[in-house]
Amino acid sequence: IICASAGNHAQGVALAARHLGIDALVVMPAITPEIKVNAVEKLGASVVIHGDDFDTACDRALQMAEETGRIFVHPYDDPDVITGQATIALELFRQNSAPIDYLFIPVGGGGLAAGMALVSKYLHPGIKLVGVEAEESASMKAAFEAGEPVNLEKVGHFAEGVAVKRAGDLTFSICSRLLDEIITVDSDEICAAVQDVYEDTRAIAEPAGALAIAGLKKFFLDRPGCEGNAAAILSGANVNFARLRHIAERAAVGEELEALLGVTIPERPGSFLDFCETVGARGITEFNYRIADKREAHIFVGIALVAAGISMTIFAFQAPSLGRGILKLLFGALTVLVGLAVLAQPGIALAKLTLLLGIYFLADGVMTMIVA
Question: Domain named ACT-like: which ranges (predicted)?
Fold first, then answer.
């Protein structure tokens, strides 16, 4: 057999093939984390790395299936695969004695959502099913809007396990009838969900794995009047350890504890101080500076917000005031006078230093007034 996958399907096929004594070949895109590739190989399958995304890897797997005579096992648009994934809903309802009012399901190609929707709506017709997609690869939402599966021009790879350009034909026909809603979440919201899972359970989810958690949070934050029991599917934990640092940094943005800003400021002394005064009483959590030219500098700044849940007001950077320029001029003139007075004394070096400092403040004051 042969399959293509950047997620759980690859490991499922490898495990089933080992159990049945079948030779398995898995085609995986180059974006696949090394931990996933290693897991597939440890289960006994052969791995071929091809292409930069799932769709390219899938095309290669179909080509190899035709060339070698292997049976292609589709990761989502296959009735047997959908039926297998439907058993997750059976497990959920058997293990949960309380009725579930809302069920959040991650969506890539739609196999998991289609399977769980079939079982959920059959056993509990009144349940509200919400599919959750990554904002940068929302192929099922695009299909809902178009009335049929469509090809996205490009997909992001942050949540590579659900990075699919086109929803399945079979999965779309099921999801369009049974899912009540499709919502999308951005990368920062996904990172915040990864942090929530860790803090609540000490489990580390991959971005695609925490997708439904992020959707659950967003859904109820946007609908404060909604009440009831909610469940979300945690669908994967295949994340490279080195990637956790990036996820942790973005989580603060997703929780609205930090804002990251790219700002252009005048290339002159005192500009960053002016910026900090404009920001107000907020801590600077990160600062990177890069000179652009003699007139402008580009800074990347992390700003701590007062508390989670507050709305961040985007402000315009205010140019230095005329009054500040006048104060700098006065201070510069005073410093020059002090330097001239010191010239009459033996300490010539100190006098020169004082004069240079005074001239600097005079020039800075003139520039500030010009900008103002």
Answer: 259-331
pLDDT at 316: 35
Distance CA 372, CA 318 (A): 9
pLDDT in tens, 117-175: 999 999 999 999 999 999 999 999 999 999 999 999 989 888 888 999 999 999 999 99
Task: Provide the terminal-to-terminal Cα distance of the chain, rounded to the nearest Å.
Answer: 71
Q: What is the pTM of this model?
A: 0.70
- Structure token digits, residue 251: 């989580």
Please report, as a single letter, which amino acid is at residue 156. Answer: G
CA 166 to CA 4: how far, in whole Å? 14
**Residue 356, pLDDT score:** 72
User: Residue 28, SS3?
Assistant: strand
* Side-chain-facing half-sphere of 255: CA atoms under 13 Å: 19
Q: How many CB atoms lie within 10 A of CB 187?
A: 20
Q: How far apart are CA 336 and CA 357, in angstroms?
A: 8
CATH number for 79-252 (one of 1.10.579.10, 3.40.50.1100, 2.30.30.240, 3.30.1330.120): it is 3.40.50.1100
Whether 2 contacts 16, CB under 8 Å: no
CB-based contacts of 118, cutoff 8 Å, min separation 6: 82, 86, 89, 174, 178
**Dihedral pair phi/psi, residue 129, rounded to 5°:** -105, 125
Joined tokens for residue 239: 């994340």
Between strands 230-232 and 102-106, the pairing is: parallel
Between CA 232 and CA 249 the distance in angstroms is 24
Q: Could you report the per-residue pLDDT of 67-122, keeping only the tens digit for each? A: 999 999 999 999 999 999 999 999 999 998 889 999 999 999 999 999 999 999 99
With residues binned 3-state (H G I as helix, E B as strand, rest as coil), the percentages for the chain, rounded to 5, are: 50, 15, 35
